[in-house]
Amino acid sequence: MIDMSAILVIFGGTGDLTHRKLMPALYNMLLDGIVPEHFRVVSIGRRDKTVDEYRNEIRASIDRYSRNKVDENIWSKLCGMISYYRFDFRDFEGYPKLKAYLDNLDKEADTKGNRIYYMAVAPEYFETIVHGLHIAGMARQEGSWSRLVIEKPFGKDLKTARHLNQKLLEVFDEKSIYRIDHYLGKEMIQNIMVLRFTNSIFESIWNNKFIDNIQISLTEKLGVGTRGNYYENSGAMRDMVQSHIMQILSLVAMEPPVNLKTDSIRTEKLKVLEAIEDITPEFLRENVVFGQYGRGFIDGVPVVGYREEANIPKDSNTETFVALKLHINNFRWAGTPFYIRTGKRLGTYGAEIVIQFKDLPNILYFSDGHIQEPNLLVIRIQPNVGVFFQFNTKDFTSHHGIVPTKMDTSYENPSQGNTPEAYERLIYDILRGDSTLFSRWDEVEASWTIADRIIKYREQGNVKFPNYDAGSMGPVRSFELLARDGRKWWNI
What we know:
2 domains; 15 helices; 21% strand
């Protein structure tokens, strides 16, 4: 029996992440009956407010962001679990007092001394807080467990990521560090392995002999909004490619693990990243496209360009769009291109993986002019959650026609229930001590090794920005990237 009793300590308890994601997730977990009986939440903030004031603010956020309507009995239970602790985490003298507070709460709530320290703060404070926990003896306590949860970005580049990791390992062991990527908590991301490894029809043809190309698209209609300061120092490469997309790529392309244990899965994911072709200057010139949005229209409404957004320099060269063509040099995937694109202020919002299968020879039905539409398997991550499959069949409205037929499943179908938010799954896994959906350090290091080279190339380049209109699907060169291979981006 797994002991999930714990105190969840949220550094950044008054911040946007806590209000929009963490607290609504905890409410829905309690509604689903997966929160342990002996559980407490201590939100840490610098603002002067009472516990009741804080609880009222959390209630308003749950009303606004929860996937389920608020049940007063469930809210009453969660409300009783939440405390607010005023503390400036930059003040190292305050950590012993925080420890005493948590120890007293342990006795009251019988949480066994177990702790989850959640870093819902700006990345520059990760090292500060971990040092504070260390000097107060809060990271390791005999007879109990402590887990550290780190939100992305994990470092700004390979050098800073290695420095941060070294500092964390001085206090916590690797198995106690949970590097969270909320994309891995999404239902269809988890379903990639299930789809492959429980269906012989897919796994038997999941290779370069049958697959023509694989496309991963993460597109947004939104601009940078109020996140200008963050995004200007991040860009699409750090914000999306180094983390979300590399994780998705490794799940799609991995070999079957020897078992479903955490390290077995992570090891196979790492092999994919290590097998990506060398990122040379020649490769970068031919296979990478950067973009930055200018003015345009989103759903008919005029919007400003990136350089006109708040806190963005007028001459900014930060990329808001990236398209890549990669090869994975192993026996399964040699010769099969992986196309990746992600960007802001695009014409569609969504995240999907498109597996395009190879065409049949142009004989039999395709010898007399019938257009052969390729078989497509589409894994839809958001906003429609499900699997789409396209295959060819007879057009029953004509004598000789052949048409593509579509089979589609979706979690938006009421009969299939309500899809849990990613954070609900991830917090539950942290409580259980299951780190399968979290990034191991060597995965992070491998993805930064790839991303670093691409980022440095962009910083040395002289791309003329802006180079795509808001509301379009990105720079013209991103379409040419596929067109020169005789392919196109799929928008299903």
